[in-house]
Every structure is written in C-alpha cells, then in structure tokens.
From TrEMBL:
Keywords in alphabetical order: Heme, Iron, Metal-binding
Source organism of this protein record: Thermobifida alba (Thermomonospora alba)
The name this protein goes by in its record: Biliverdin-producing heme oxygenase
Alphabetized Pfam families for the sequence: Heme_oxygenase
Highest taxon listed in the record's lineage: Bacteria
Keyword Hydrolase in record: no
InterPro entries: Haem_Oase, Haem_Oase-like, Haem_Oase-like_multi-hlx
Protein's UniProt keywords contain Iron: yes
Length: 231
C-alpha cells in the first residue's frame, strides 16, 4: 500500500483530535527543529530574544483570547472556551517584570506576528478554523511548553513565576487530564469530513505562521549559533 493511501485510510478511521495530531506531526517536527526553538530549548537564546518572544506571544494570545470570548456561546467555537487556559494576564505580568511598568509603550508585533494574529481574528467567522489555531498553540504550551518552562527558568535565573508565568498553568490541575478532556471536547464536535480536513489544513497553516514568526525573531535577534554570531 502506498504511503498516501495508508495515510488516507488511517485518517478515515481517526478521531478529529487524532487527525489534528497525526496530520500535523510533520509540521510539528519542523517547528521543533527550528533554530529559534532549539536555542530556546537548549538555553542558548539570549535574554533579549526571549523577551522578544514573550512580546510576540502577547499579541498572539490577545487575538486568540478575544476570538475565544467572542465564540464562547458558539456550539463549535465554544467547545474550546476555557478561560482558565487564558494567557494574557500571565503575559502582562511577565512583560511588566521583564520590561518594566511602561512595557505597553515599548512593545510591537513583528510583521509575521501581525499577519498570524490577523488570521486568528479572521477565524471568528469560521469556528472550526479557530479551533485549529487554539489547538496548535495551547496544546503545544501544555506539552513541549512544559519542557521549555524548566529551561527558561534555569537559563534566565527566574524565581518562582515572575518572567515565565506564561508557561505556568496552575488553574488546570493535572495537565494530562486536562489535555484528555480537551481532546474529548474536540472529538464530541460534529464536524463533517470536509470540515475536519479544512481544520487540519488550518492547523498546518498555524505551524507555518509560527515558523515565520520564529524566522523573524531569529533575524531581529540573531542567535549565537556560530563563532561569528557569538560576540
Ligand atoms: C522546542 C520546541 C518544541 C518541543 C521540544 C516540543 C515538544 C513537544 C512534545 C514533547 C509534545 C508531546 C508529544 C506527545 O504527546 O507525545 C508536543 C506536543 C505538541 N506540540 Fe510541541 N514542541 C515544540 C514546539 C512546538 C511549537 C512551536 C508548536 C506550535 C506552535 C507546538 C505544538 C504542539 C502541539 C499542538 C502538541 C500537541 C500534539 C497532540 O497531542 O495533539 N510545539 N510538543
């Protein structure tokens, strides 16, 4: 059996959450292998690069949480409306800690972040597409994000909480249990085949937006990856 045929057969018998995971896993590999991700995870990202990432997160999650609130009562979009997951309050505290009380005047989105946030806002009219964006960010934060949390705390010498609250989900209880409940909420949605496929495609697009954002961060905060960059 050819690989494409095998993948199709697997997809046909998979739940929506399995599809989202399996059919984007290649894109996940690329995101994980990105120079910026690797620097973050290996503790070699300079502090300014980390702060720039927190700033971009602030603009992204502002869009995600705005749309989540707007769709709270929608039968599809409302399935992922978990206010206890929301990151903007934590990001605001992180930015005040990292940049000082006037941080709002000092932050701006990169062009790639602006485009990504615009796409998220666009899905306010397409709730299954919004779910794809929601899934890509929050399940990532609850998974690989928890590895990053430990490295970030150690690398930048943060005390408990301050500077990396973004990665702390202490209102959720057990994260594996929350993630299972999240996947069950996705699987309970009655999305037809075509809509599931479109949503998976949108999740792949979300990964591309993330990679673009990391590429721009990389360009604006060059990583010390070679001796030339080390000074
Ligand atoms: C340093 C970079 C990264 C590392 C080390 C990492 C690592 C991981 C790990 C270990 C898991 C759990 C896998 C499992 O359940 O078996 C995971 C899941 C996930 N990651 Fe990442 N990740 C990284 C970057 C990203 C990025 C940039 C995104 C998207 C913006 C992302 C989105 C996701 C999602 C959505 C899941 C959940 C998959 C699912 O169970 O459906 N990750 N990641």
């Amino acid at each position: 059996m050819g690989t494409a045929q095998a993948t199709q057969q697997q997809s046909a018998s998979s739940t929506f959450s399995e599809r989202l995971r399996n059919d984007t896993w290649q894109a996940h590999g690329a995101a994980e292998a990105h120079d910026f991700s690797r620097a973050l995870l290996s503790g070699t990202l300079p502090r300014e690069g980390y702060v720039a990432l927190v700033v971009q997160h602030y603009f992204l999650y502002t869009a995600l949480e705005e749309v989540s609130r707007a769709l709270a009562d929608h039968p599809v979009g409302g399935a992922v409306h978990f206010p206890e997951l929301h990151r903007v309050p934590a990001l605001e505290r992180d930015l005040a800690f990292l940049c000082g009380p006037d941080w709002r005047e000092a932050v701006a989105p990169l062009p790639a972040t602006r485009a990504y946030a615009e796409r998220i806002r666009w899905t306010a009219d397409w709730p299954a597409g919004f779910i794809a964006h929601h899934y890509t960010r929050y399940l990532g934060d609850l998974s690989g994000g928890q590895l990053i949390k430990k490295v970030v705390q150690r690398t930048y010498g943060f005390d408990d909480g301050a500077g990396f609250e973004f990665y702390v989900f202490d209102r959720l209880g057990s994260l594996p249990r929350f993630k299972n409940g999240y996947r069950a909420a996705l699987d309970a949605l009655e999305l037809d085949e075509a809509e599931q496929r479109r949503a998976v495609e949108e999740a792949r697009l979300a990964y591309r937006f993330n990679n673009e954002m990391m590429a721009e961060l990389d360009r604006s905060h060059p990583l010390p990856r070679t001796p030339d960059h080390a000074s």
